[in-house]
Specification:
mainly alpha, 2 domains, 3 helices, about 0% strand, rod-shaped
């Protein structure tokens, strides 16, 4: 009789543990789904998009200034490479947002 009670107790404990694990897993999955639409996620994405555009623009402008100083002439390399940097930055930012929002998969 005591052996049977021990088995029942062990089964009850296993069942409680299984339920506890299932609750934690559900909570973790819900948090992941909720994080994708959280304000902080999109604020971070906004900052990332800004840097994704700013860095190529600054690099393009710097290279353009360097070329204009070395080779003076009619086409403004500063303006041209700045616009190329903006275009590259927009493409990089667009791809990053698309991938992070789940549409790029």
């Amino acid at each position: 009789m005591t052996r049977r009670k021990e088995e029942e107790e062990r089964e009850r404990q296993e069942h409680e543990l299984t339920e506890q694990i299932a609750r934690k897993a559900k909570r973790r999955l819900d948090a992941r789904r909720h994080d994708a639409s959280a304000v902080w996620f999109w604020l971070g994405m906004f900052g990332l998009v800004g840097w994704s555009v700013a860095v190529p623009t600054v690099i393009g402008t710097a290279i353009g200034v360097w070329i204009d100083q070395r080779i003076p002439g009619d086409p403004s390399w500063t303006l041209t490479l700045m616009l190329v940097g903006v275009a590259v930055g927009i493409v990089v930012a667009w791809r990053w947002v698309r991938e992070e929002s789940g549409h790029g998969r």
